[in-house]
Write a structure and sequence with these properties.
The protein contains 18 helices and 16 strands. The chain is α/β, with parallel strands linked by helices. The chain has two domains: 234 residues, Rossmann fold (3-Layer(aba) Sandwich); 212 residues, no CATH class. Helix 3 packs across helix 8, helix 9 packs across helix 17 and helix 17 crosses helix 18. It comes from Agaricus bisporus var. burnettii. This is CigA protein.
Length: 535
């Protein structure tokens, strides 16, 4: 330590021992980490962390976007299981594979078809498929019922298959939970237009299932048969149709009627000989698609058609309560006039139904019926011979004395007296019967097509008169897609009420009306069903 010019300084003592030798580094003894390299390492590390955070954030945001109003379909089923009291028997879809390969008997063979159009066209195709699969001793692969205002139209097999695949709801469970007031996501644009349910949520298939095997098919995706059943293309026989009435299936080719509207007859015996594991058909719709001579086949079809009754407990409970409110004694009509096909013919169809009620059921003479029509609508044309011939139907017979008495009592206890009531009573010699109107028309109170009915029947009713009875429908939610089923089930309630009437008159050309007249009404009155399309 020294003092120099008043400054206190400290000098370092020279080192007498050498430094220990340094260990060599992987880069060599002369290379050292530069500070800039350290900064680069830190920067790369930060960039990696930032990139990972961005990916995680975007992934989380996408997941939250897809599930922002709900959960995935599997969770939807659990969510709605307690709020959808179907009270149905065990469904053919309860053991659905949901994308997993099903345990299959290697010797088992299958039959499948493609559904299209509205409920009753799907029902007819389902009936035909049940009959064919039982005759051929094949497991029927059953698609769900599509309910809604926008049915899938008919196309030839390949195009129909693609259309059905595009119309699925897989991965869209969140659409059911879009809050009111928010715009509908583009992927949900048609989500609310339709709903899929298994057949046995509506119809009791217990007898059918006791005699043949059914397998539920929820997906129309390409490759489903291979993925779920292990069936390849070379194990499949395709019946490619080119129009709606291409193939007809017959059990006696030589005796079949060729003037039937179908392009080609296919022998049932030839199908029996097919060894392929899968027979895949396009459309099986058509009341005359199966033409049978053999008694065992006719009996099989009759048994299956008789089983096609709406058996949903809530729908039956509602329709029974409304029927009892009407005194269990009323006439009914089923008028379809909203869809384009029926809208074009709505006026003549409405007139034909009215004539059926007045001339056939109530047994007024031709002169009295024509006079009554002119009074009501100032219609001087009268009824033509062709229109009279249309009225001849085995379902439509005059009321007997017991039925007239029941209608008279019910009308007298329910209908308020009025001048119109007195006029109808004078003409009929009895109280005018109650009339139930089952229809797809809106504003039933003021619709012009219904004025002729309200003009003669002073006591007319429709679903709008029984809103308190319909509250049970609000409980019904489809556990598969989360949609309320009320609007889809209202037509079935209408049909059931009409089928409980003393007499019912339906719309010409409507498979729904034929279902009511031929099956529901006749089964309710312990009559044999009417089988259309038989020899």
């Amino acid at each position: 330590m020294t003092l120099d010019r008043g400054v206190h300084q400290r000098t370092r003592i020279p080192r007498t021992r050498p430094y220990p030798p340094r260990a060599p580094t992987p880069l060599g003894p002369c290379v050292q980490a530069h500070p800039r390299n350290r900064r680069n390492v830190k920067l790369v590390t930060l960039l990696l962390i930032f990139t990972f955070a961005c990916v995680a954030c975007f992934g989380s945001a996408y997941y939250l976007f897809r599930t922002r109003w709900g959960t995935l379909p599997d969770h939807l089923r659990a969510l709605y299981a307690d709020s959808a009291p179907f009270e149905a028997n065990t469904s053919i879809c309860d053991d659905n594979t949901h994308g997993r390969r099903a345990p299959i008997d290697p010797n088992e063979r299958f039959l499948a078809y493609l559904p299209h159009s509205g409920f009753n066209n799907q029902r007819i195709a389902f009936e035909n498929a049940l009959v064919l699969s039982r005759i051929l001793n094949r497991t029927l692969i059953v698609p769900p019922v599509r309910l809604g205002d926008k049915p899938v139209p008919y196309f030839p097999l390949d195009r129909l298959s693609r259309t059905l695949a595009l119309a699925e709801k897989n991965g869209l469970g969140h659409c059911a939970h879009v809050p009111p007031g928010l715009s509908t996501p583009p992927e949900c644009s048609d989500y609310f237009d339709f709903s899929h349910i298994p057949w046995d949520w509506l119809i009791d298939l217990s007898l059918v299932k006791s005699k043949q095997k059914l397998l539920c098919r929820w997906s129309f995706a390409e490759g489903w048969f291979n993925d779920i059943l292990g069936i390849s293309e070379n194990q499949t026989f395709l019946m490619r149709d080119h129009n709606l009435y291409h193939y007809r299936f017959v059990d006696n080719v030589g005796s079949s009627n060729r003037n039937n509207g179908y392009l080609e007859d296919v022998s049932i015996d030839a199908l029996v000989q097919r060894k392929q594991k899968l027979l895949l058909f396009g459309s099986l719709f058509g009341s005359a698609r199966l033409q049978f001579h053999r008694e065992e086949h006719l009996e099989m079809r009759r048994e299956i058609r008789e089983a096609m009754l709406i058996a949903h407990p809530i729908l039956n409970r509602i329709s029974t309560s409304i029927s009892k409110a009407l005194g269990d004694a009323y006439l009914a009509i089923h008028l379809r006039a909203s869809e384009s096909k029926f809208e074009r013919a709505s006026e003549p169809n409405s007139r034909e139904i009215w004539w059926t009620l007045i001339h056939q059921f109530l047994n007024l003479t031709l002169d009295d019926t024509s006079r009554l029509e002119r009074i009501i609508q100032n219609n001087e044309r009268g009824v033509t011979a062709m229109e009279l011939n249309r009225l001849n139907s085995p379902n439509r017979v005059p009321l007997n004395d017991t039925e007239r008495s029941a209608l008279d009592i019910a009308s007298g206890s329910v209908c308020p007296r009025s001048q119109m009531y007195a006029s109808a009573q004078s003409l009929l010699g009895n109280n005018p019967p109650l009339l139930y109107i089952a229809t797809d028309l809106r504003d039933t109170r003021n619709h012009p097509l219904l004025l002729r009915f309200r003009a003669f029947f002073p006591c007319t009713f429709d679903l709008s008169n029984f809103s308190s009875h319909l509250t049970l429908l609000n409980q019904l939610v489809n556990p598969v897609d989360g949609l309320p089923l009320r609007r889809h089930f209202l037509p079935f309630v209408d049909a059931l009420i009409a089928s409980k009437a003393v007499r019912v008159a339906g719309t010409r050309g409507s498979t729904f009306s034929y279902y009511i007249e031929d099956i529901l009404w006749r089964r309710n009155h312990d009559l044999p069903i009417k089988q259309r399309g038989t020899f």
